[in-house]
Amino acid sequence: MHDSIYPTLVPANWPFSLEWLPQPAYMVGGAVRDALLKRSREYLDLDFIIPSDAVNVARAIARHYQAGFVLLDAQRQIARVVFPQATADFAQQEGDSLATDLYRRDFTINAIAYNPHTQEIIDPMQGYADLEQGMLRMISPANLEDDPLRLMRAYRQAAQLGFTIEPVTQATIRSLASQITQVAAERVRGEIGYLLANSQGTPWITSAGEDGLLAPFFKNATAESFHKLAAIDKVDNLLATNCPQLSVELQQYVRDTVKTTWLGIAKLACLVHPNPEVAEIELQEITYSRAEIRAVTTALKLLPQLKSASMSIREQYFLFQEAGIIFPAIVVLALVDNTLVEAMSGDKLLRPYAPLISRYLNPDDLVAHPTQLVSGKKLIIALNIPASPVIGELLTEIAVAQAEGIISTAAEAIKYASQLLEGEISAK
Fold first, then answer.
1. CA distance 90 to 274
2. CA 296: distance to chain centroid?
3. Is residue 127 within 8 Å of 109, Cβ to Cβ?
4. Which pTM value belongs to this model?
5. What one-character DSSP code corresponds to residue 147?
6. Are 51 and 142 in contact (CB under 8 A)?
């Protein structure tokens, strides 16, 4: 099994020297699993079990290599050392033997240990056989109950690895599903986030929904909600071919600090209540950020408007003003409703929204991306009026008139504002 040791298991590739590890010491968890699957990653995430003194081992390594040191759990003796291209967690062995520690883990494929001193693979739960079959198998129901997040993690790991969940394990998860409410909402949100982030996650978040794990968090999700997630993946593929610029925007994060993409926002919008106010409460309870909540609720609010048959230039202007960078997610939701009706070609599907998409993607389009002809200060001076909310209203009307092609210069803008004030023309 260890004839050709994968690079992650070779101490020469670690950010610290093997001599810092006492004997015995064991690498465990995802790093061993991924190494045996020959899955590589640029950023190493290593986990070690040390029979005793784990925190002091970690502290000594951090000090010697001038790396970051974090005490994760003083009681259970777990510490993390953070290197530029790797993290290494050091945990005190639980129980009186390595086997006891491994028996406490979630799935057999995560309960394989590797002794770097002897290059020996230790696999008491036959996890390697499950790895070869692409199977996620629980170690015991009690282990899943110990940390009910493991119920959700099964679906995320199946998606991540392209595995199936062993039937008895899935039946057990189904029977324990109500216990997911014992887990802090932000931990559950992290697993959901992964499943929403890519198309491999869609069948698995659907399974998690069918098995009762999502109902406590998305009370209004229905079978149709999950069909829509699959439809979003189809729309994304069509956009990649027919409108690559919009497709690229959908892969961007809401913010650097918020690792949800605009495509993920569209998917979230399918799982919550269609009423933006109800959706906001749901998302707050699952601890989504203000930026994510605003994105979802704005998308839900503007979706009916986007789908209306015809919009005046004025209505388009206000739609773009309110939507801003959320626009691509709203388009996806509008397109999804169409794909549920019939299977369409990309061209036919996009046709109703093509003019709006073109405006959005054209930085010089004055309806989607207005430029200010005059400032509020200029209006105050030119019209000899005091600063008041009226200035904002005039600036809006000027922008709309510019979008409609009624005015195009600063002088025309000032004249237009003057006519509005004098009632010669009325704001629509």
1. 46
2. 13
3. yes
4. 0.87
5. S
6. no
251-286 exposure pattern, b = at least 16 Cβ within 10 A, e = fewer: eeebeeebebbbbbbbbbbbbbbeebeebbebbeeb
Cβ neighbours of residue 183 closer than 8 Å, sequence gap 6 or more: 147, 148, 149, 152
Three-state DSSP class for residue 165: strand
CA distance 91 to 50: 6
Nearest Cα neighbor of 21 from 66, 88, 111 is 88
Query: Is residue 7 within 8 Å of 31, Cβ to Cβ?
Result: no
Structure tokens at 23: 């004997």
Q: What is the mean pLDDT of each run of 10 residues along the chain (428 residues)?
A: 66 93 94 90 90 95 97 94 95 92 95 95 96 97 96 96 97 97 94 92 96 95 94 92 92 86 96 96 95 96 88 94 96 83 66 92 94 92 91 93 93 92 72
106 phi and psi angles, rounded to 5 deg: -80, -60
Question: Under DSSP, is residue 82 helix (H, G, I), strand (E, B) or coil?
Answer: strand
Q: Which two tokens stand for residue 52?
A: 């005793």
Instruction: Report the residue count for the chain.
Output: 428
Protein fold of 7-132: Beta Polymerase; domain 2 (3.30.460)
Residue with tokens 């405006």: 359
Where do the CATH 1.10.110.30 domains begin and end in the chain? 134-216
Residue the block writes with tokens 């003194």: 53
Closest CA to 3 of 36, 46, 40: 36
- Starting at the edge strand that comes first in sequence, how are the strands of the sheet with 68-73 ordered? 68-73, 78-83, 86-92, 44-50, 26-27, 113-115, 120-122
Q: Choose among 389, 410, 388: nearest CA to 398.
A: 410
Options 3.30.990.10, 1.10.110.30, 3.30.450.20, 1.10.150.130; CATH for 134-216 is 1.10.110.30
- 222-225: long-range pairs with CB below 8 Å, 24+: 224/340, 225/270, 225/271
Sequence ranges of the chain with CATH classification 3.30.460.10: 7-132
Count of Cβ atoms closer than 10 Å to residue 293 Cβ? 21
Residue 194's identity, in one-letter code, is Y
Q: Map tokens 């009624």 to a residue.
A: 406
